[in-house]
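question for whoever is on the cluster today: can someone run the full assembly for these? two chains, 676 residues total. i dont have access anymore since they changed the login thing
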Amino acid sequence: MNTVRSHVLISIDAGTIMAGARAVQAELVEEIKRKGLSGEVAVLETGNLGVTGMGVVLVVYPEGLYYANVTKEDVAEFVEEQLLKGRLVKRLLLTQAPKRYIIKREKTGLTREQPRIVLKNCGVINPESIEEYIAAGGYEGESKAVTGMTPDEVINEVKRAGLAGRGGAAFPTGMKWEFGRKAPGQEKYIVCNADEGEPGTFKDRLIMEGDPHKLIEGMVIAGYAVGATRGFIYIRGEYGLSIGRTERAIADARSFGLLGNSLFDKPFGFDIEVMKGGGAYVCGEETALIESIEGRRGHPRNKPPYPVTVGLWGKPTIVNNVETLANISEIVRNGANWFKQYGTPKCAGTKVYTILGHVATPGLIEVEMGTTLRDIIYEYGGGITNGKAFKGALVGGAAGAFLGPEMLDVKMDFVSLKEYAAALGSGAILVMNEGTSMADMLSSVLHFFKHESCGHCVPCRLGTARLVDIFDRVVESGAKNGELDRLLQISSVMKDTSFCPLGQSLYMPVSSALRYFRDEIAGS
Amino acid sequence: MDRPAIVRKFGPELRNILYILHELQDRNPQHYVAKEDIQACAEYLNVPYSYVHGVATFYTMFSLAPRGRNIIRLCDSPPCHLMGSTSVLDYLKGRLGIDVGETTADGAFTLELASCLGVCGVAPAIMINDEMYGKLTPERVDGILEERRKGA
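^ ran it for u. tokens below:
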């Protein structure tokens, strides 16, 4: 193997491709060749580097220097200065990077604490190389489970780890698997919910773009534990790069004998197919997603029976979120006790968040459960842009809760937020500065729900439309005749009577917005 | 377009219906699911026309009306809304001289609203056909429209 003195990692994800990463990459390779450095410097492709909205992002190793907003025109100077002469190109250097990289990997001072389980390989390995994934310890969990553990042992390990579903509902994963294992039936399925549609959430996209094998490995282990032989990954149609990389990873895993029949010469086999969605928020609801895979309109089903007993094609089916499954291989490989050292006693592990809106450095982070909202915004998100004051945050997407400044020190985990009638949801944190109109934001949430209501049940179909009608009047001429109480009343009825979580969840944004910002909204 | 050949790329199982519709729409020069497409899909899967129509109208990625060469899908979910998607929408409407759901007379652009596109880190964002564009400003919109008009 040739050794090189320097590596340049370039992030190729949907965001950087938008900013021209492919062209920068091609130019970089050419320029390195022109300068005669091909034998000394290697250019490697990787997933998201944790920096979003700053154009094309590069890291130079061994120095661990981050460069952002690199354009094709900058490449000649970058190669000449940084790679040939070893001098910094200060105007492109990311000096004020937020606290968002792993502490041990770099020593430049840009990097601070961020324990990474799910995103361990994101921005480190080439997501299109199964060899790199394996070199980073990949598929060890699958091998350990299939060759050295019984399905019950796997389930017990996941239960002991205390992993809760990361899609928003926080249902204990091990318990779900146990139900699936005990459900009668010969044929069972594992479905990965990658129909990520919650506004402000794109963590699953970056996991699939940055480390698709981790998801595949998690699904195989789930299949082994539950007794399933087939898996489906339902990815939203807009996620072209995720679909491509996941399909490629599946093909590579098959050719390496890590997916398919008689894995590790054992009588267990598992295979996975990718399904492409059609653009419907409600399909993120597990039974609607199952309907969609079967080839129907994505209307939710009655529950119970739950999918663990009657799911895809009437068979027992486990539906897990991408992030949940991406935790599995590390739990099996390192054990439940290792996993429990992260997070809080009631809520183990880490959570991947997307921080957005009026923050200096929007993007993807993975931090321990229980990290405060203040730390997430000010330490990891770089604080509010232009030195403005924090006004509120919408946590958990459109189906989440508005939180005011008095909530900055609340611990972010499934259990703590529940005490404040809020939820972690999908992990989206939309930050709003002092100039934001909360009425306008609530209006945006209501319009979103009106558009995405699937029309299947009356409370949600009519309720979302009425909420928009009423609130449009409030925005127009203020709340005069008890309109705000009507909003609460309608959304509360929707919470009690809607068929699926879509209609049930509107009460949270409505009630929380009015809890923290009622006076402002009434006067709008 | 050879519809029977397109649908036969997939097995005749109901679960392939979204794939078949995606493919038919992508192959249609006017980027929509025509009545003939629905008919071909229904015959192939052996389900009623109304069934396929129901599925195609449920998912927002399918259009039952002809569209332009460039389909602009503007995200107006809360994160993009916060970062100014409304101004981008107004600007696009003005530049293109069309409203949401309409196509320019020269067939170059169709303007649609979309729910969260999942690129919220660079809000406000739009998707044109398969490509994403973020951090939009009026100046950037002009450049993108120009580029797409030439390319299309």
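summary bc i know u wont read the tokens: Chain A is about 40% helix and 15% strand. Chain A touches chain B through 55 residues (CB under 8 Å).
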